[in-house]
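Quick question about two entries, pasted in order.
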Amino acid sequence: MNVLLINPPYPFEESPTPPFGLMSLAAYIREHGHTVTIDDYIVFPYSKKRVEEISRKVKPSVIGATAVTMNVNRAIAILKDYKDINPDAITVMGGPHVSFDAENILSSHPHIDFIVRGEGEITFTELLNSFEHTNDPARILGISYRTNGKICHNDPRPFIDDINVLPFPARDLVALNRYKALGFPINMVTARGCPHKCIFCVGSRMVGRKVRYFHIDRVVEEFEMLSKLGFSQINIVDDLFTSNKNRCMAICEEIIRRKINHPWTAFARVDTVSKELLKLMKMAGCTMLCFGIESGNQEILNTVKKKITLDRCKEAIALCEEVGISPMASYILGLPGESPETIAQTMEFAKSLTPNYGYHILAPFPGTEVREKKEEYGITILTDDWDKYDANRSVSHTGLVSPEYIDEIVESFNSGIKRYIENAIKRKQAGEIISEKDERLIHKISSFFVVKDIMMMELVESYMGKNGKTTLKEIIHDFSYFVAQNTGHQQELIENVLNELISSNTLTLTDVDGTAKFCWQ
């Protein structure tokens, strides 16, 4: 089958990384004989014109899309645009949202033919094979579809027992250099599964409570390969990288043995780290660990089944700082039992624990226990407008504190960060000497916005080029002027950014019939 996979737009503010799930899916179905293309609307701007161009080029017989809750509406709309142009193509959706909202998706959107629930590699491959041969989906576990005017949900598929049958993700199908140009990290996983039962998370239902591991040699081989791609950081995005201390230490020891020198980050729980482990992780290149602490109120932590204590949070953060790993703490406001008093406790705890922290607001996603047992937890759902489920605004409330109050706190916190950056920029522009840390921050943010505008406004593609004999310096100057006219960014800043893109080989100079132009690598 000729398969087109769609990665819908996702906010740049959330620091998206290359679409790991789609790349893993693509690698597996390609290994089983199917042709695959990924259309990535994170680093390419969406337009009807692009849909038409991709459709002509790929001629897909099957079109699939992934989505989380906050971008599921965009994915559905884009899938419809593709279906309108390719009416004979079979459309399929997968991902965490549709896995737990299949009935609603299929009943509301007739242009969607199938839903793959849960882990997709084997299920989607069997579905493709059925299209080629039997065209009978009844025996395929883990799918939902329509038949004779009714929606059918086949039995769930068991989780893949040995995930080592999965090949490396098909990163060659994604424009990695565009992510690198934007300063985003690249990601990988070393395992699937989460043994914990936090009521606000859908992870363990999506990938299981039994943690299934990739072989250590495979993990480090992939890590070493990623370390050579020029990304500033590798993110290990396991639900819980530190779930198995001995294995985690073995991975770190192998990274050290191979002399792989590259910064990386991971997610951890405060009850899974020790000084011994953290020291080895630091030696292996770990620069930051992200901890979901969620609340500064112990009763709320108990209610949401986090199963950690505030004292253990303090110990874990202190250990990270002692060994030189930066701890990052995240909190969720609006959890069951939340009140103005518990919010004050969380804010005070967050400030006392580490300067690196952030807030989100509870979003009761489909599939979470807090949504399915909302009455039991005293939660009222305010809306099912999935576009609002970005965890940055209230879509539910506890009855003890108003949604507006929570929104105001998070908005004020985020605005404070923005004001700090704006103030640093003003001080620099006024000629004041600012800290090296603020210099790096300003440069990173300024460069990001320049690259984002060049990329999403398609200025590389629309630039007419420079005819005749020209030097690299001359065309950089000419193109930077063109960008400045279209974006309003300062030309000097643009020239600096272009030089960085060229030196990192994300942008290259090419000659097209005697005209010098740039192109993305």
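Here is the second entry:
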Amino acid sequence: MSDIIQLLPESVANQIAAGEVVQRPASAVKELLENAIDAGANKIQLILKDAGKALIQVIDNGCGMSISDARMCFERHATSKVRKAEDLFSIRTMGFRGEAMASIAAIAQVEMKTRRYEDELGTLIELDGASITKQEPVAMPEGTNICIKNLFFNTPARRNFLKSNPAEMRHIMDEFQRISLANPSISFSLHHDGMEIFRLPSSPLKQRIVHLFGNNYNERLIPVEEDTTIINLKGFIGKPQFAKKTRGEQFFFVNNRFIKDAYLNHAVSKAYEDLLSDDNFPLYVLFIDIDPAKIDVNVHPTKTEIKYLDEKSIYAIIHSAVKRSLGRFNISPTIDFDQETAFSGMISPKSLDEIVPPSISFNPDFNPFSDEKTEKAPASSDRGFSGFRNMEGREQPSTKNWGSLYEISKEKPAEQVIMELPGNGPDDKYAPIQKQLMQLHNKYIISQIKSGLMLIDQQAAHERILYERFSVNLEDRKGASQQSLFPQTVTLSPNDYELAKSLLDDIKSLGFEVREFGKNTLVIEGIPVDLGSNQVNETQLFEHLIEGFKNSQQELKLDKRDSLARSMARNSSIKSGTVLGQEEMNMLIEKLFACKAPNFSISGKPVIQTMSLAEIDKKFDK
């Protein structure tokens, strides 16, 4: 029997390696940009076509390569930064002409021009699937110009698994943002299909953040800086009021290399714990400078995870530094023995005489246990505190005044309301009986039913109603729109703008009238007719729609239309704390029971809860 184990051909081995290094166009972009940075470039251009599938071109003004280096960089295991095993633990560079070039060349058509400063002519090399097809001298400026064409042209199965152009473009922009944030002293530009998306001049870190995410980020940033014997920490964090529902603006860099580390993320989140709820995520761009010998960057193929010798101390330093910065800028309470910053500038001694203590008025003759008819308490102008209005518009007092409320109930019968749960007959014990509805803490709607009482979560109910309505609109493409009197423009981050463009057809199906209006800007000319009666901020609604869409896709991995419907329902529903009149409560319940799944919210939680008379009696030991 002959031997069956053989060495793989070089071309096959390269394609296997390419599958590990180059998963999508963004992977190739990352490698090429990092190579340009290590070449000492201070100006880097990235040019893309068809979201990197047709062309990825990186032009830099770095040191360039000699003829032999230009050929050698496409060989497997060729590198300029590692000479011995110990070098793996003292790496400060990103990658220099050779770590991924062989893998990229194995699955694409490559053209590279490169010239050193001291050379009169540069070198042109063309490759097709790792085979060199052309090499000749060429006149060119100092630096390197590399084109990656037709990525995965010889591995069609891999190419078929690539996502849509907008999806692949978002991955590329994520890599571009990380690299440009880590290197604010370098000028970057990004062009896609002939359109300029970014032009980032050399600038301080704060300006780089503003250039990437938008001018409105200038007021959102708080500086962080801490120097210790273990690490040096610097960067910016975001003010709590600008936190978002989705991750995506959290950046950690260790020795200028972007990393993902849940442990360090928790250190930052812990500093915000009294300022933010668990489902909000603050912005931060933090840089850790540490001795390379104290970390291991080779624990993950993409080098986005790192092992530390003393991670607990690093955690404590980051947590305390972020906490102190929040306190220093009067975001959270702090103790300063030189000055009590929490009160500085708030009250001057002259104003102390002007302070008038609050007065309390009460009726000394009121007796809640008296059977005698008491005088009706004056109505408060604050409906949310004093009670609710009946159908005639008369203000009814707070339920604290039981005597007055009892007298009002004797004067006029309650408004008749009849509701039935879907699938239940009129004699069912859970069918609500003819009684007036009541709002509890402006959060729940209470109705008496034959078996006891029923509670309805008003926000969850409205979300369910809107979700089913928007789902139908998206399916039928018939969302009605109401024209805005004054169209509003909304400027998004480049990532969100690309996402919004990919969703425009479905967004219009919801009832929005939206069109492109310049760089990273859309104009909103109409909103869904269902929201026309509400005082809505079109710009905020649209921004929250995009943010909610990303959140739904991250958490539940839903399809595009379902994510949009959920996001729209959450952002346009009435919220807990909203005062509802009898008509509004009646309409809400009527529409809820017309839904396909009235008993559950779009998060899968109960909308309706019932309590039987037996359960109520038990609480009173009856």
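Reply: Residues 332-355, 372-427, 430-434 have pLDDT under 50 and may be disordered. The longest strand covers residues 481-491. Hope that helps.
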